[in-house]
Structures are given as structure tokens and as C-alpha cells.
Give the backbone structure.
Amino acid sequence: MAHHDRPVPRLLATPLGPAARVFLIAAALLILPTYFFPLWNMTMFAPQYPDGLRLHIYSHTLEGGNGGQDVKEINVLNHYIGMHDLRQADFTELKWMPFALGVLALLFLRAAVHGELAQLLDVLVLFLYFSGFSLWSFGYKLYHYGHDLAPTAAVQVEPFMPPVFGAKQLANFEVYSYPGPASYAIGLVALLLLAAFWITWRQGRRALAAEAAA
Amino acid sequence: MNSQRTRQWMAWGIALVAILAVLAATGCAPSAPKAREAGVATSDIAVAAQKTYVPPGDLDEYYMFASGGHSGQVYVYGLPSMRHISTIPVYTPYPATGYGFDDDTKAMLGGLTWGDVHHPSLSETKGDYDGRWLFVNDMNGRVARVELRDFKTHQILGPIPNISGNHASAFVTPNTEYAMMASRFSIPIPKGTPLPVEKYATDYKGVVAAIKIDPGSGEMSLGWEILMPPFDYDLGDAGKLASDGWMFWTSYNTERATGSLEVTSTQRDRDYIAAIDWRAAEKAIAEGKGDLIGGVKVLDPKKVPGIVYFMPCGKSPHGVDVSPDGKYIIGSGKLQGVTTVFNFEKIQTAIRNKDFTGDEDGIPVLKYESIKDAEVAVGLGPLHTQFGPDGYAYTSLFVDSAVAKWKLGTWEVVDKVPMSYSIGHLTAAEGDTVSPDGKYLVGLNKLSHGRHLSVGPSQPESSQLVDISEEKMKLLYDAFTEPEPHYAQIIKADKIKAIEVYPKEENKHPLAVWDVKDAGVTRQGDKVTVKVVAVRSTITPTAITVKKGDTVTVAVTNIEQTTDELHGFGLLDYNINIVVDPGETKTVTFKADKAGVFPYYCTNFCSALHQEMQGYLIVNVQ
């Protein structure tokens, strides 16, 4: 069959070794912490808020520090400059993200069981797309909050971009925005998938080379 | 497993750990803001301790008179120790000194048991504090005079007709000709005229009132008023030296909006400072140009032009402050990052040249660009400005929670010091006079959380002492002041000459008795007068007998002439407690409507036999 003559489809049929399978199972397990730890943490300090106001973004919920009070406080402050309220209902991501993560974990397991590079490549591409889209979506939301300001606000400020990663001074607030444990887990998942892919790819290439030499 | 594979595993492991470590190291917000992490050097603490420590028995260098907000009182602090020395009750009964219980002070309170004091105003001569009186506003349309000879409230004037929500008060003119008032909440006038709020923009009126002050006695009387557009008049300051004869008021809600003002009143980029030529107003009143409204002569600027002008100022301004030389008027739009400096010369020129951009109810609006000297980028939320002796100005920043120091003339911001937290007004030593002292500045902060031992949800306000004697401002001390200081004034201690006893020869009270032989009960029908002598350690008479239904007036004379020998007269079950200072006579009148035996006693500890200082009121059934 022509299949045997073309190297890429043959490469994609490379069976997963034990290491790649372990990585896939580990990746599936690493999805678990994303349900229990925040994806992203934002901390806002101002002279009046020496202990900071905190916002924890989970895959399924928005949680304020201080028993949820910090979200209310942030909304009270933001209304002076005409920002929209941070409301759970406005984040559709919180509805589809946990589901998508679960589906991805199942697909990792499926690849581990089925055991060919093709399935691994599928989940890798899907996962990278999911991560990239989520990150973009987060950035877009922040952009929207900082730019879509009510023209009737008491205090008129220039539209601004809240930090996605790192620190930024916004008026009297020092704002810090950093990924949380769930994002580290997702980062690890990506690394595990890449590693599994790389190992299997190399194995496949070596096998093809050996075959050609034989 | 071959060695190559082991190496591969190890490489993967190391890479993972390294990536995790990098993420963990960079990906965390600090636990405290950068500003706080800077910390305070030990040497600074030693300097601050030395600068604020007033050893036992030593006296402070300055008095600070702090408004007590809705406590209705004035609080006296010593600087630099920040010790609370005394409370002067003004608008609220204060059992500690018997204020509001005796007949005179009860009558003075006029049935109201609270006031909202915002802006103390020390009397001035040639624009400098003279240490004679302190005038304080009350939101309920009143103004009070405290005499600094005895630190007592001697007069409460008002409620003043037509004035509503007397926030912009009590600012005195440079020779204490007037204490000024202005409405924060415009209403239809005269008071008592009901009109729907939909008519706000056209039929509600702001009012400015000038309270005349007798130069000898300090006695206040209602001078005249000016009809103003329905804005919210907020703060004021009298012109001095170059600008003497003028009065400046900030106003917000020049939108004439109603409803949720936080939105509706913040739509215009600029509101106004009202500039009033009060000498011209005085003259117009003398010429009979006022209309009688609510029993007072009121000038209508539409009919009497040349008295009131509007200066556009950054939106929703709070403070308006005249520089020591009177040349600059500094207006602080509280929703901005700049404070605006107006030039009095330019204002006069613009008025002469009719350099107007429009009018508000017939009041000309001056062209902003023609009267402004600078917009100083002091920081976010500028509220109020005070001055030093060396050409520096100090502006409080509510949003930034800091004080900015900047130079008049160069408009350069040279220093900032953080305040904990959310500073409102600030006060520098004699910092609103023609000759500020410098040295100290006190930030009057709205929030204090976490800076003191917790006292539950009702948190005190904080007042922070700042050293302004050097180029860099230095925070010296946190004090927790009684609720709720808005503005305060700091006066050099030697300017106040307080007495410590009321000299006997000055006591002209008709019911005063100075000898126990003259003490006793007299009756006229069902009116009973009891002349009482209080002296260590007897209240004479020791028993008073009246009949149920009598109206009893007890007049207590404290015949002591020794400092600090106060006597109280507390009457149980009758809600009576008065405190009489040495040489003073006070009366309390009540209806003896409960029969029985009621102990009275000295409530203010006086002597070794203080506990023995007691007597009985016997109320017989007919």
C-alpha cells in the first residue's frame, strides 16, 4: 500500500512507548487540580488597601479574597471610573472550561490506551488550541473591562489595559496579575504532551531510519 | 534500562523542575505593597520619637482645634505630642462638663441634640490668628462662637434663615468682620416652601450668608445674604492681603442635577469657584438693595451685578485656599490629578475686561484660561491645601492617600508623603494665615484600619503628624482622634491667654451666693428657687424640700477660686448633672414631678472628702 511508502502517515502510526503513556496518564491526572486551584490570581494594593484586594479566577468560578468581599469592594471602586461590574454570569468561559478540560483529560486517556502518535498529536493540538484560546479570552476580557468605560463615570480615566502577567500601576493601585496553580498544572500538561510527542516522534523516526537502512 | 535512556529521563526531570522554579519565582504577587516594603529606618524612629516626645509636666508648643464632625463637638489637642487635652462641647450635650443640662446651655442648644461640625475658624486680626475666638459651623444652619478665654461655647446663632446644610462655613474674614456660611443643599426659599424636586434647577436656591461679628465682644448677628444658583457650596476661604475683601467658595453639582449625584453631578468637566466681593455686597446692603426673604436682607446678583463671579475649576472641587500673600487662589477638583492655581490679579483684570464665557442666573462666568496660572500635577484626588512659611504649599490627596508638597510660583511638586489612610483635610501650623509657621502638618485621615488596637467595627479616625521643617516631609506620629475631624486649625500656644478660674468680681449672676449663710430655698407660689453654694466638701443646703408639682430652679455657685476645683451637681432620677467651674454660677430648672427622696452629689471629683459632698432633695406629696 501507498501508506507504507509515505513516511509521515507511517510516523503517525508509531506506537506509544511506556514513557509517553505514563506522560499522558500524568497529564490526565494533572487536569484534576484545575478544578480545585485558581487559574489566575490578581492582587491590588493601594495605600488604603495595604493588605490588598484579591481576585482568584478558577476554571469554574470567580472568587474574591476576604470571603468574597474583595470582589464587591473592587466593583464599588471600579464604578467610580465607569467599569462594568465583575459578574460571574458575564464569564461564559466558566461554563465551558471545566467541561472542555474534562473532555481533554478523557482524550489523553484514550490516546494512552489506543497508543499511536496520531491520537497524541490530536490531543496535543487540541490542548494547545484550548490553552491559547483561553489565554486570549482572558486577555480580551481584561481589555474589555479596561476599555469599555461608562461615559457618565464620575472620574474620567483614559482606557487602560490591566496586566495579564506581571505588575502595573493603575491610578493609586499597584496591580499584580499572575497565573495560579491550575495554570501551572496546565503548563505542565502541555510540557508532558510535548515530551510524549517528542519521544514518540524520535522513536518513530529511528524505527523508519532503521527500516530504510535494513 | 540503558544509560542513554536514564540520562534522557534525568534531563526531562531537571527541565521540569527548572521551569517550575522559574514560574514559582516570578509568578507571585508580593504580600505587601511596594510603598510599605520600603520600611522606616531606626534612625528615623529615634528622630520622630524625639520630635514628638513632650516629657511629663512639659507643655506642648501648639494647640490644635479639631472639628468633631457629627459628634457636634470641638476637640483640643496639643502638638507635637498629639495628646487630646480637652473636649469643647458645642452642639451636643456633654455630661462631662454638664453642657446642655444647665438652663443657659440647654437654651443655647435650642432643642437640638446634635450638630455636624466641619470647619473651625479661629478669629483673625490682619489675617493672623489672634487667639480670641473660635467659630464653628453646624450643618443644621448654625454657627457657634467658642471663647478661647475660657474654652467654652458662648453663642450659637441660628438656624439661619434660608441657609440649608451649612457646610461651607465658618470661614472668617481677615479682621473677623464676618464668619461666612453657604448652603450645601439648595432648597426653595424661604425655608418652609414645599416644591417638587423636579423644580430643582430653576426654583431651588443656594444661599450665602455673612454673619457679622462684633469686634469687641465677638457677638454674632445675621448680616446679609446673597441668592445663588442651586449648586452645592462646599468649602470657602476669605481673600487676604492682595485679595482682602473677597470671599471664595467651591461649588459642585453645577449641573443642577438631582437623584444620584455621584453620577448626575459629575458630568461637567468643570464646576465653579464663586468669587464674592463682600465689601461690595456690604455696600449694596447699606444702600438698601437687598430684598427681605425669610426675615433677612438678600441680594440677588441678577438685580445687583458686580458682586458675584464664577471661576471655572476642575470638576467637583472641594478645597479653595488662598495663599498667604493673597495672590493665588488654589482650587482642587477632587476627581482629578491636578490642582488649579488662579491668579487674583488676572481675576480682577478679567472682571474689568468682561472676559466672560457666559453666565449662571445672571452671574458672569470668567474665562478659565484668562484667570488660571497653573495646573499643578499634585496627584490623584486633591482636596485641600495649606501653606508653609517658605513659599511651599501642601495639598492633601484623598485617592492617592498622600500629601504633596509643591512650590508656589514654580508649581513644582517636590515631595510626597503617604497617609494612612485616605486623607481628607490637612492642617499646617497657622497654615491658612498670612504668616504660616511651618514645622508641623497634620493629615486628617478618614480611615485608620489596622493602625491601632482593634476596637471593633466602629473605627476611629486617624490624625498623622508630619514634620515639615525640612525639605523632605517626615511622618512623626499616628494619633486616633475623636470622630470625626474634617478641618482643624493649629495655633501657637502663646497666642491664647486662658483664665483658669472665673474671678469672683466678674460673676454678676443674679442667683449667685458666695457665703453658705446666703444659701437656701425661697418660694413664690409653685416656683422654688434654691441658691446653692458648692465648696470643698459640702453642697449647701444639704437638704432641699419641695412639693410635688413645683418648678424648681437650682442655682449652684462654685465659690472656689482655686484652679481645677470643679464641683458637679448630679441629681439622681431626674436626669440632671451640671458641672460648675471655680467662680461660676449655673442654674438648672426642672419640674419636681416625682415624689420621694432623691440624692444629689458632687459628680466632679474635688477633694479627699468628695464622696461626702452630698445632699437630699425631698419631694413631698402636697
In short: The helical segments of chain A are 2-5, 7-12, 18-30, 69-80, 93-114, 117-147, 181-213.
